[in-house]
């Protein structure tokens, strides 16, 4: 009698565990059907950007030239770049120092609403190539990666997909852990990382689950760093309270919406050129009494003297020099891994110089960032593969693995579908499953941190309650 009761309890417990598993599996399935195409798109465009940045350069700066004994004055190089537009109204607004002795210098030349990049041989001051700014393959991939070429709505879709990916990671790890049965925690973990391969759909499940386990931490980091730059969670929430305190150089720390921020003045188009933590920070202005020890008093403030000063204060190799724009504009020197200037985020540095007095108005380094700014600097370097060739190789493998993980999920779904089935055929189709609040509560709690994820979950709930429940044809397709 006791054995019978124990067997009954054991069967009931197993049945309850199976229902919980099927509930989470169904959640994972629906989220995955939505998220997977976007993840594959992000992985493919990210891979393309990674390769293009290391072959031709984001700004076309990897063109090679023959090194010579002497370099032409920077003003001569700049004038050569300006003259290449054959326009009296053209003006040089940015200089990007050569990445190496055998590579070109790059100048950005504006003429009205047109921006052109001119690659110049620093030894001869001859223009090697000119090309429209932000209109090459790298920037096309970047725009698709940012908003799929459909603007704000595309940005929100990708932010939603990245936010739901975080829930997919949590639910996927639960499913793979639960699938290991009653093994010890150590054996479960070993089997999750190194599964025993089967055949057919089981082999595809092993591919999907193993890749998901191995990629989970990196994918989580990439999602967080990506949505921190997205329009809602990033732009409206975390970036606003993580900005660098401009009060350090006498600018009000809470700028109005029309303030001249780093992002507005230095970013161009959808490509980000300013470290994340500085985007919303107001720029200092020239013509004030602020500043300290900069270019020596009495020395003319020209492209050459500013470049020389940059080298004197520690800028090495490739860095970017933005010329003052307008009466209150400043000279800006910057070097960061996000812009492919160097292979370490800890070298991040942005310097502002008064265009009239030559005084140093601000010198912002990685050590000055707050904790989230440092997290973003490091995670973006990981995200973009700018930490050296090992990170390029690792990111190539990561992107391919994400595509394989998503593709294997679709293959598993297709193999599980009954012959001649109609619709999505979710797991445990037509089976009424109880809510699993022990798992639903933490997932919803995580979702509340990301507004677009909450909006997506609420939208699905409304559609399920008001539409699918009342239209049998749709319910048959989706449920």
Automatic annotation (TrEMBL):
Keywords, alphabetical: Membrane, Transmembrane, Transmembrane helix
InterPro entries linked to this entry: PepSY-ass_TM
Highest taxon, organism lineage: Bacteria
Residues passing through the membrane, by range: 29-53, 156-177, 211-233, 392-414, 435-463
Record Pfam families: PepSY_TM
Protein name in UniProt: PepSY domain-containing protein
Organism: Neisseria animalis
């Amino acid at each position: 009698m006791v054995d019978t009761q124990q067997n009954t309890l054991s069967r009931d417990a197993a049945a309850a565990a199976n229902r919980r598993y099927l509930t989470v599996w169904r959640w994972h399935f629906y989220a995955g059907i939505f998220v997977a195409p976007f993840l594959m798109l992000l992985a493919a465009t990210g891979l393309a950007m990674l390769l293009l940045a290391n072959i031709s350069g984001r700004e076309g700066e990897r063109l090679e030239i023959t090194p010579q004994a002497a370099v032409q004055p920077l003003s001569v190089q700049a004038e050569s770049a300006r003259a290449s537009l054959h326009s009296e109204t053209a003006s040089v607004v940015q200089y990007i120092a050569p990445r190496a002795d055998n590579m070109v210098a790059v100048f950005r030349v504006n003429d009205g609403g047109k921006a052109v990049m001119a690659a110049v041989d620093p030894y001869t001051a001859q223009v090697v190539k000119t090309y429209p700014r932000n209109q090459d393959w790298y920037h096309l991939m970047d725009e698709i990666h940012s908003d799929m070429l459909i603007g704000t709505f595309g940005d929100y879709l990708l932010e939603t997909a990245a936010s739901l990916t975080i829930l997919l990671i949590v639910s996927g790890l639960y499913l793979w852990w639960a699938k290991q049965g009653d093994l010890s925690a150590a054996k479960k973990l070993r089997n999750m990382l190194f599964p025993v391969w089967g055949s057919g759909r089981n082999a595809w499940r092993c591919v999907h689950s193993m890749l998901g386990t191995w990629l989970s931490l990196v994918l989580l980091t990439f999602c967080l760093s990506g949505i921190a730059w997205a329009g809602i969670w990033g732009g409206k929430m975390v970036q606003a309270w993580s900005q660098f305190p401009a009060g350090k150089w006498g600018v009000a720390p809470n700028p109005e919406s029309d303030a001249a921020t780093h992002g507005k003045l230095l970013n161009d188009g959808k490509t980000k050129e300013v470290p994340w933590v500085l985007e919303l920070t107001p720029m200092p202005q020239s013509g004030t009494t602020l500043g300290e020890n900069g270019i020596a008093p009495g020395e003319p403030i020209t492209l050459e003297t500013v470049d020389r000063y940059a080298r004197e204060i520690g800028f090495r190799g490739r860095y970017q020099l933005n010329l003052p724009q307008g009466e209150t504009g400043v000279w800006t020197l910057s070097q960061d891994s996000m812009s492919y200037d160097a292979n370490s985020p800890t070298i991040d540095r942005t310097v502002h110089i008064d265009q009239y007095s030559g005084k140093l108005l601000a010198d912002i380094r990685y050590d000055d960032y707050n904790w989230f700014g440092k997290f973003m600097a490091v995670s973006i370097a990981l995200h973009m593969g700018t930490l050296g060739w090992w990170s390029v190789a690792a990111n190539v493998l990561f992107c391919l693995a994400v595509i394989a993980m998503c593709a294997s999920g679709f293959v598993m779904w297709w193999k599980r579908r009954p012959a001649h089935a109609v619709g999505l055929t979710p797991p445990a189709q037509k089976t009424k499953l109880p809510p699993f609040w022990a798992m639903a509560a933490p997932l919803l709690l995580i979702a509340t941190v990301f507004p677009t994820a909450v909006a997506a979950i609420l939208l699905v709930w409304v559609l399920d309650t008001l539409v699918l429940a009342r239209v049998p044809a749709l319910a048959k397709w989706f449920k």
